[in-house]
Specification:
The structure is a single chain. This protein has 439 residues and is α/β, with parallel strands linked by helices. A seven-stranded mixed sheet has the order 3-2-1-6-8-9-7, sandwiched between helices. A five-stranded antiparallel sheet has the order 11-10-12-14-13. Strands 4-5 form a two-stranded antiparallel sheet. The two termini are 38 Å apart. The relative contact order is 0.10. The chain is globular, with a radius of gyration of 25 Å. The chain has 15 helices and 14 strands. The structure holds aspartic acid. The site of aspartic acid has 13 residues, from helix 7.
Length: 439
């Protein structure tokens, strides 16, 4: 049995958190491979180490002294080392890093050191070997991960043993350090789990799993005990941010369950994410909706012309215009002779008028409208598939509260129903759906 366990920044923030991590790791001998983030915030006004490292790099770039910021970084790690009475001596490496910074260091390499030093300390504290991520996590030149080589390398390095691995970065084919996008230690953990064919990938953070709705909108939302990869993808795409977006792909490919847990509440089972669940718990089977998420700031462009539906290639030509401007069209609800294109307003940027001009010229439509200030809210649930009446219930609930639905879309897998509402109705829509289906 092997559990790959990843601890996020808040779990690595100070010596007290390290003690919790060690207790968790020691309580289960299957927890042999540990992936760590850089030290996160200890309190709300505190700084994440990674942010400080980015700040250092910005100072270097503009030729401004970063001594005081670097001193803060060094102090965080030396405090942890001292408080835990660790033997590993980071001073020579910190000095070598400072020297390298004087002669030029890439941003990726500098910011990756947050994870590197975290892992050095944690390896010493747990008595596990340290495995540098640059020794196994290999990127291709196009910045995708070379899974085959990476997996093979990690298998060889870990064998049947234990390891502590820094998250967030790996090596390019020329050996230089490359990081993932922010929050990327989640991906390192998933890749390590996939490489080693782990039985489970535990992602330890500071919340007891995924909640059914955003707690800033719904008071005390219920936690989600079990969710499928597909459902999670739907929810996180549209706004629920618990894991880095790319985390699920490596574990899903190998059918490894992902368990989100809370370092500060280790007895809580958290959320389990799997491909499918064979038996539903009593709680699951009563509930049609697994979660609700949404995002503000969308625009809907609607183009209508008599005879559109019987003209081949129209949709492709319309989409091509958006594509040529690098605009991602997220949903395309359509009528018989009309098509709506739902895009993030931010992505539309300055291109809106060019796009409208090109649509006008190419199709001479009967009407061409833009609606801005739209929010997208998705109700997601594997139980909704092929079950009549759910969408009717959703629309009735929203209608009875005076919420005007501007757009409706349902994916072919029927695990989501998406509504577009005015931005001012956003929070109310989430609350109405939650109250009608969950409470
Ligand atoms: N330390 C990195 C960040 O703050 C990566 C991570 O924690 O996952 O983005």
């Amino acid at each position: 049995m092997l559990k790959v366990v990843k601890f996020g920044g808040s779990s690595m923030a100070d010596a007290v958190q390290y003690q919790k991590v060690r207790a968790i790791v020691r309580s289960d001998e299957a927890r042999r491979v540990v992936v760590v983030s850089a030290a996160g915030k200890r309190f709300s006004e505190d700084h994440k180490l990674t942010d400080l490292l980015y700040l250092c790099h910005a100072h270097l770039k503009y030729g401004v002294s970063c001594d005081s910021v670097f001193a803060m970084i060094t102090q965080r790690y030396l405090d942890i080392q001292k408080e835990l009475g660790l033997h590993v001596d980071l001073t020579p490496e910190l000095e070598a890093l400072r020297e390298k910074m004087r002669h030029g260091i890439s941003e990726d390499e500098l910011v990756s050191r947050g994870e590197y030093f975290s892992a050095k300390l944690m390896a010493d504290y747990l008595g596990y070997p340290f495995i540098d991520a640059s020794k196994w996590l290999k990127f291709n030149f196009d910045a995708t991960v070379n899974k085959e080589e990476s997996y093979q390398a990690l298998k060889l390095l870990v064998g049947d043993g234990c390891a502590v691995i820094p998250g967030f970065y790996g090596a390019m084919p020329d050996g230089s350090i490359k990081t993932f996008s922010r929050g990327g230690s989640d991906i390192t953990g998933a890749l390590a789990a996939a490489a080693l064919d782990a039985d489970v990938y535990e992602n330890w953070t500071d919340v007891s799993g995924i909640l059914m709705a955003d707690p800033r909108i719904v008071e005390n939302p219920k936690p989600i005990a079990r969710i499928t990869y597909t459902e999670l993808r739907e929810l996180s795409y549209i706004g629920a941010q618990v894991l880095h977006e790319a985390t699920i792909f490596p574990v899903r490919e190998k059918n490894i369950p992902l368990n989100i847990r809370n370092t500060n509440e280790p007895e809580n089972p958290g959320t389990v994410i799997c491909e499918a669940f064979e038996n539903d718990t009593a709680d699951d089977s009563q509930r049609f909706i697994t979660g609700i998420a949404g995002k503000k700031g969308y625009s809907i462009i609607t183009i209508a012309k008599n005879g559109f539906s019987s003209t081949a290639g129209v949709q492709r030509q319309i989409l091509e215009i958006f594509e040529n401007h690098g605009i991602n069209v997220e949903y395309t609800p359509n009528g018989i002779d009309s098509l709506s294109l739902v895009v993030q307003s931010q992505g539309l940027g300055d291109s809106l008028y060019s796009v409208l001009g090109e649509l006008q010229k190419a199709f001479e439509p009967d009407s061409l409208d833009v609606t801005e200030g739209i929010s997208i809210v998705a109700a997601v649930g594997r139980k909704m598939a092929f079950r009549p009446g759910i969408s009717g219930k959703i629309f009735a609930a929203l209608g009875s509260q005076g919420i005007n639905i501007r757009m409706i879309s349902q994916g072919p897998q029927e695990v989501n129903i998406i509504v577009g509402v005015d931005d001012r109705d956003f929070a109310k829509t989430v609350r109405v759906l939650y109250d009608s289906f969950v409470k």
